[in-house]
Specification:
By secondary structure, the protein is α/β, with parallel strands linked by helices. It folds into four domains: 99 residues, Fumarate Reductase Iron-sulfur Protein, Chain B, domain 2; 55 residues, no CATH class; 125 residues, Rossmann fold (3-Layer(aba) Sandwich); 116 residues, AF0625-like (Rossmann fold), CATH 3.40.50.10700. Helix content is 47%, strand content 7%. The chain has 25 helices and nine strands. Helix 24 links the parallel strand 8 and strand 9. Helix 13 crosses helix 25 and helix 19 crosses helix 21. The longest helix is centred in the C-terminal third of the chain and has 17 residues. It is globular. The termini are far apart.
Length: 450
Amino acid sequence: MASRSDHGPAVPPAVAGQLPRESVGLPGFDTDFDLFLDCVHCGLCTAACPTYVELGDENESPRGRIHLMRSVVEGRLELTERVRGHLELCLDCRACETACPSGVQYGRLIEPFRIAMAQGADDRPPDDWFRRWILLGLLPYPEKLRVALWPARLAQRWRVDALMETLGLMRLLPQRLRQLARMLPAPSGRIAELPEYLPAIGQRRARVALFTGCVGRVLFGATHWATARVLQHNGCEVVVPREQQCCGAIHFHAGSSGPARHMADANVRAFEDPSLDAVVTNVAGCGAMMKDYGHHWQDPGRDGRRELANKVQDVHEFLDGLGLIAPRVPVPLKATYHDACHLGHAQKITEAPRRLLASIPELELRDLPETELCCGAAGTYNLTEPEMSGRLSRRKLRNVLSTGARVCVTANAGCILQIMREARMGGHALEVCHPMDLLDRSYGPVESRQ
């Protein structure tokens, strides 16, 4: 029997692998329909979903969103602002994939569907300056971002930002710009760019390229140096191609697929060196994006992107597989490890970082409650959905503080910024850093230190 939507005409129900003719042209109509059918609506994903845990609304659960997307694709539901809101509130953390016993590939449903929503959004404000000039026009471009941050850096050095917070003047900034300003970490001394080549220390074991990205390159130069030195200590020649660009995740997750594909293709050219054993990433979101290069676009460049994707390894994954040369310098700290979503859920890497951290003498690693739950950063989600992001970051900080740790360790730039900001705003003396920062300390100084 045909089904009828409250918002449209009756359409025949879809069956496995097929859609009614009326679905052509609707958002998601070209999605492999079998991906929808993998979900049996058992509900085991709900306890893992941050938005459902916070709100208790079935529409904010993975199975609820799959039902919404499928109903839109089948023509039984209009893509109203309310429906769009439920789908846009998803963090795309993919914790549901880890929890799902049926192997539902949620990321391959929500990501192309949101791109289709963005491309078909006639009601998007034409003057959305933040999306146009900041999200897509500034953050993915390191040189422009570095220049744009100078005023904020000066305000930090002269404590103008702290004064604005004290006087309540920060509230005069637009909400998303205020959120961005508060995310900026404390200034450090000038950090030199990584050279194009760093030699292995000791016996050469591998030749790798280091992906430096965009925001990470500007705000986490010290962590990139730490990563390179750890790789050197483990017998790796490290090359840093100058031609590399942003991984494309910022554009892709904002629904701007074309520019993301151009960035991916630029990275294919930058890392085409056949002598490389791996292309190493130290930012979970970048690694997850690059590992999916072969799936996102179906065009003649797909084979080259798939070849690069097959070479990409997270630095923890790579070192764990290579066999870590044990560090020797004690780091007597109490620490807890937060699983970055795009490392633990998207890349399925959870034990390797813990094994590497366990090799550090005198480092006490304490278990973090709800470690699998997103901190609310989720790429640029903390800028586009600040209310839900704030709820999740406060929840994450409470869990971190409950461990009694002085250091929170996590393998994603966005998570570091998010937890660091929440701790700073709450007046907590908590160090937040990357596992490579601690490993680097434990290897001790080397000649290449900048």
